[in-house]
Amino acid sequence: SDNGMALIPLTITTARGNSHRFTVEVAASPAQQEQGLMFRATLAPDAGMIFPMRPARYASFWMKNTIIPLDMIFIRPDGRIARIAAQTTPYSLVPVESGEPVSAVLEIAGGRAAELGLAEGDRVVWKH
Question: What's the CA gap between 98 and 104, in Å, rounded?
Answer without folding.
Answer: 10
